[in-house]
Amino acid sequence: MNTAQHSEPTAPIDAVQALLADTGVLARRLREVLAELSERPVKLDELIRRTAVSRRTVEDLLAAAGSDVDAADDTYRLTADAAERYRARFALDELRTPAPPDDEALELMRGFVAGGPVPATALDHVTATPETALRRAEWMRDNYDLAGARVLCLGDHDLTSLALGLVVPSASVTVVDVDERILEHIDTVAAQRGFAVRTLHADLRFGVPPVLEGWADLVFTDPPYTPEGVGLFATRAAECLAGPHSRLLLAYGYSPRTPALGHKVQQELLRLGMVFEAILPRFHRYFGAQAIGSASDLYVCQPTAHTRKLALRQAPGIYTHGPQSVEALEAAAPQEFLAAVGERVGAPVASLREPGWSRPIRPRQGVPVFDLRADPGPWLLRMLLACNAERAGFVVDNNHPDITSERAQRALSELVGAKFRLRLHRSSPDSRHAVVVTQLRADDSVAGFLLRRAHGKVGNIWREALIAHTEATLTKREARDRVAELARDGDDLDLRLIDLPRHRIADIVRTAAA
């Protein structure tokens, strides 16, 4: 006799939970519907009006709740038994109890900001007030379900990530920034306070770390206020959004005297297929930026189905000041300049190659020379990690932070010493520039093995390095266990070396060398 196999029917409350989970950070809106249903009978049109949730979504929620809802006289209400269970499982009571002002959190934020790095004008840094950073985190908490959510801060000079650590400790926050000082400061504070905040390095002109593609439920960014800057940051944010229920939160301000600039920036967002769900005027306040009234608006942007397919032109000049500004892009290097560079690298140089480290650089012939004249500071190290040429040259500004002092030169040489021998030619080929020449060393150390393979996962490459360079025979498991013992931060083992902040790269290289 054949017995038909029947799966147990899903309990209504489990079906509701699955619906909320599928909605991601927007589930808070559905919880508000449930909170209304738990308190009193309510008509469908009133339920929609009070919660501002679409009729189709409310109907889907009522269908999922099924027998847990009493429907009578054109009204809906959770049954008495179900209301208690729903309140407990979905934390409905917290929706009815506004969080009080947190004076302690504000004082901590003031300390975080005061202890952080000074603004870098060349990177368009204008510091938001501590109150603003905290307001951002509280607004995200009050409008989205952030428990277990993944929040990405694209650039974080204002330390919004630390405010999230204070306000929503259950959220998983990642910071991407080009400024090594900011990443180290955030790492230090997060470690001291036990915040779930990780930091990664990237210059968005050259892409985002692959681990972040399609990762984020929310992306927050306060980009350079040029159309190119906003367009680039929004493009990278679009690459990182997890799906249709994800959102981009963007700070932008312009002077009422120049509405054409505001229009041009908004066009960049529209060109990405973004929809403006809300624009909250004068939400952010700054120390400085008086041309825009020391304030900017909060844009809440919803991606459309086309957002991730749309490509926006990536201009290397995205800032409003300094050597990387839109107006400061330099023309191709003249022949006399190239000839002088060739004398330093010991090979003819027909042209300078553009920077970029998204993939390993393995030239098949010749001596590549890279144009790092617009380097704000971090590019040189990243290019040294990416490049595996026998010999190469890098043209930088004569005041590049890695070569302006003996101490800085020694720190760079020690960091990449297991991979390259460096020769530094300051004030050459002219008084404004310098040339860094590299010679590849033999691959005979664990640290050198890691540095040559900076685009692989640290844990995997380190394991292979131990197997290749340890006298005793190690199995893969033994090598993996040894790496886990050595690593100061186990989470770094799943990331690429080239995406880590400089201070964590240095720590891994020192540990591997020892």
Key phrases:
514 residues, alpha/beta, globular, Rossmann fold, Arc Repressor Mutant, subunit A
What report would you give on this structure?
Helix content is 39%, strand content 16%. With 514 residues, it is of the alpha/beta class. Helix 2 (27-39) runs antiparallel to helix 5 and helix 15 runs antiparallel to helix 18. Mean pLDDT is 90; it is low at 1-7 and 311-330. The termini are far apart. Strands 6-5-4-7-8-10-9 form a 7-stranded mixed sheet, sandwiched between helices. It has 4 domains: 12-96, Winged helix-like DNA-binding domain superfamily/Winged helix DNA-binding domain (Arc Repressor Mutant, subunit A, Orthogonal Bundle); 103-309, Vaccinia Virus protein VP39 (Rossmann fold); 330-440, 3-Layer(aba) Sandwich (Rossmann fold), CATH 3.40.50; 446-513, no CATH class. The relative contact order is 0.07. The protein contains 18 helices and 14 strands. Helix 10 (227-240) links the parallel strand 7 (218-221) and strand 8.
